[in-house]
Amino acid sequence: MLVLGIETTCDETAAAVIERQPDGSGKILSNIVHSQISDHAPYGGVVPEIAARAHIDLLDGIVGRAMKDADVNFAQLSGVAAAAGPGLIGGVIVGLTTAKAIAMVHDTPLVAVNHLEAHALTPRLTTALAFPYCLFLVSGGHTQIVAVLGVGHYVRLGTTVDDAMGEAFDKVAKMLGLPYPGGPQVERAASGGDPKRFAFPRPMLGRPDANFSLSGLKTAVRNEASRLIPLEEQDIADLCASFQAAALESTADRLSVGLRLFEEQFGPPHALVAAGGVASNQAIRGALQAVAAKAQTTLIIPPPALCTDNGAMIAWAGAERLALGLTDTMEAPPRARWLL
Ligand code: KG4
Ligand code: ZN
């Protein structure tokens, strides 16, 4: 089964072709990702209108490259999948409409994929992983703990009540004058800082639910930073290290609760899986390893290129749905909001 996948929900314009075998294993034949970071960096964040226009300019060429790299023509495709949301609606419309046009012209099934479902299923593309497993989805737009019970069968165990984790990293970076996107910058600065210099709050610690909250921690960093102005380089490093330590401790606690809730409701998970841009943070990886070990489960983190937004994850989710006979009609709507 050959599937083309298209991703345009945020600031990556991406397309990929994957192959799925009848035994459920998968192979990436091509995976082209164009990051628009440099288009948005001057504004300190993603500008929806600029993103949508860039997707329009770039997508045809990127789909063409993905098909050429995979050495596949449209007639050979078993289906074409696009992320139909959730995301910035202008970009979603561009990707979904392109997929519909390809599906219509080549008489190929269309799959309108939920972007979050694609993150949830991606580990099965690179690892032989059976359901059920526990997903920690942690990106610029999402911070969720999800029980993945089967294709199309998800139960949310916890979510952020305010900012997403990546958003908090980005906002902290911005207030400290570090460039966008801030997550990797905060991680870099933190490596030279003292995580104990500032005693920031550990949000939600010890609560019986598995929810997250990050805006109070972010505000605590802002208050401390404004007290220290003018900021020396060491202050920035110490603020980043102390912020990251607080975020990590809170994450470890929230995930421990999430895994406990998982086990109570669905039995032991086959793995704890982390996905999303923040999962590429090395310190978070270390914390997740400890949480998984304590819960006696395996930690799986897809390679960084599959953790951040890409076309292969959309193609793979499309293939998983196609294998179950799940396709969509030309009426499939683009959605800004779409719960898993
Ligand atoms: O999954 P992703 O590429 O896009 C979506 O948000 O959907 O995630 C991007 C987010 C940004 O907020 C970025 O700052 C954060 O992931 N991020 C990191 C790191 N690398 C990326 N946050 C903390 N540490 C990192 N190393
Ligand atoms: Zn994403």
TrEMBL record:
The lineage of its organism: Bacteria, Pseudomonadati, Pseudomonadota, Alphaproteobacteria, Hyphomicrobiales. InterPro entries: ATPase_NBD, Gcp-like_dom, KAE1/TsaD, Peptidase_M22_CS, TsaD. This is tRNA N6-adenosine threonylcarbamoyltransferase. GO terms for biological process: tRNA threonylcarbamoyladenosine modification. Keywords: Acyltransferase, Cytoplasm, Iron, Metal-binding, Transferase, tRNA processing. Residues 27-316 form the Gcp-like domain. It catalyses: L-threonylcarbamoyladenylate + adenosine(37) in tRNA = N(6)-L-threonylcarbamoyladenosine(37) in tRNA + AMP + H(+). It is found in: Cytoplasm. GO terms for molecular function: iron ion binding; tRNA N(6)-L-threonylcarbamoyladenine synthase activity. Fe cation binds at H115, H119, D309. Binds 1 Fe(2+) ion per subunit. Its EC number is 2.3.1.234.
